[in-house]
Amino acid sequence: MTATLEPGTTAITSARPAWVTDAKLASWNRWVSAPVTGGEEPLTATAPYDAQPTAPVPSCSADDVAATVVRARAAQASWGGLTVAARAEVLLRFHDLLLERQDEVIDLVQWEMGKARYHAWMEILQVANLTRHYARRAAAYLADRPVRGAMPLLTKVREVRVPRGVVGIVSPWNYPLYLGVGDAVPALLAGCSVVSKADPQTPLTMLWTRALMGEAGLPAHVWDVVTGPGAEVGTALVGSADYVCFTGSTATGRVVSEAAARRLVGASLELGGKNPLLVRADADLDKAAAGTVDAVFTNTGQMCIHIERVIVHESVYAAFRDKLVAATRALAVGQSFDFSIQVGSLASAAQLAKVTAHVEDAVAKGATVLCGGRARPDLGPYVYEPTVLEGVTGDMDLCLGETFGPVVALHRVSSDDEAVALANQGDYGLSASIFSRDTRTAQTLARRIRAGSVNINDGAALAAGSVEAGMGGMGDSGLGRRHGAQGIQRFTETQTIALSRMGPVGPPPGMALEKFVRLGNAQLKVLRRLGSR
Ligand code: NAD
């Protein structure tokens, strides 16, 4: 059965925000790190709302990227020499400017990427929270750590944190503001300089943000932006940065990880997912259905942590399914620069093709469409109806492969053990959710699910929004964590500084080695008796 959705709005004929003048575009383009070689064709994306070109940005060559990293490395020396408090002042000014000027960047995010306005605003919320958190906590996260030395009292030893140098950030189009700047903020506070490769679909959002950081007082070349085709520019950045921070697909993540490993530079990788949500027999079904709708359709399903599999206990399956389908059908779908829409457009023709192919493959192999299941060109070129399926089996592409669209499959189970086994199927391990009134059992179950985050009685966003806690994936969903202590400490290396108060450690002049060994053994026994270490 295919649902008939109430259209949220009519198609947009021109998506370019009226305030985006040619002069403004030219001023943002000046933030692209100045081309050294030039001569490459400018790059122009297609706006999802009207399928028209957005605005051209320069295309950097591999040499441009290498030169940009050299400039950033030079700029890092003085930036890294500032106190954390001085760096935090710049970031807090950025926070305030972002809140003041949010309507501009929300327009740009919508123009370039097509999401609903509310979901674009959530990027503001996340970046503001992250920036404030790190500006206030960076000094503690980066503080020296005194440790016990080799010889009690006679030595003083501490671990200190040293910025890695130039962090190369490669981020995707689905959260151009949050993922574009969310890792740059802790990297800058850690004393690194940053070179960001903007995604070819969403470079204007990145350039606007860089311009705003300039207004906040960030010195030149401490954060530079390179633009151009993903593979060329991304490869060049991974080939020259001192640390790589990558967010994107698992396939590209493997390529990036291999390239970083060959150069013996560190990398954190935030990759794909096929996230499960468990509805236990005792769940509040109204809350579970509302949470599921939010977790599946936020950002039109183009969110790494969004839910693509819902695993429901058989005793509540029919009741939950009916509530979920009703809530899905009630969503306002379409495209609009106001807050009237709940599910926006997909970002590109490629996304529409992938989502369509996944659903068609599932239906051809026997899955049932409970609602949605088709494109809505009457609402926008890349709009796809929020879709709920059941009867999905292992031979279907969308069963364990990431769809990255507004599509979810329902699965029926008869026990917690079966639910956990199904949740752990596949190679991904990014995020999971559990709805249950028994929160103690839910927390025990959470530890059995292989996922970097588990939300209990929330659809998807609670863990990611708790910016003091690490966020990242297990298995094929990545390496390393963003947010919290790990999210900033990864941009530093520890250095151990050991001081001797008695001169070089070893036998004093004139003492026989044998006597020194006897004294050493006696000292070890005393320390053992004292319970030292
Ligand atoms: P993608 O891997 O195709 O591209 C990601 C970025 O890498 C883009 O900017 C692209 O231009 C660049 N790139 C492409 N080839 C490259 C190369 N050889 N070297 C370096 N960079 C290269 O991913 P996508 O399809 O654009 O983004 C969607 C994917 O990102 C989904 O799988 C989604 O789950 C994942 N994602 C993960 C997280 C997370 O935090 N775990 C967050 C958002 C998105």
From TrEMBL:
The keyword Oxidoreductase applies. Residues 42-497 form the Aldehyde dehydrogenase domain. Coiled coil: none annotated. It is an enzyme of class 1 (oxidoreductase). Keywords: Oxidoreductase. Belongs to the aldehyde dehydrogenase family. This is Succinic semialdehyde dehydrogenase. Its EC number is 1.2.1.79. It comes from Nocardioides abyssi. GO terms for molecular function: succinate-semialdehyde dehydrogenase (NADP+) activity. The active site is at E270.
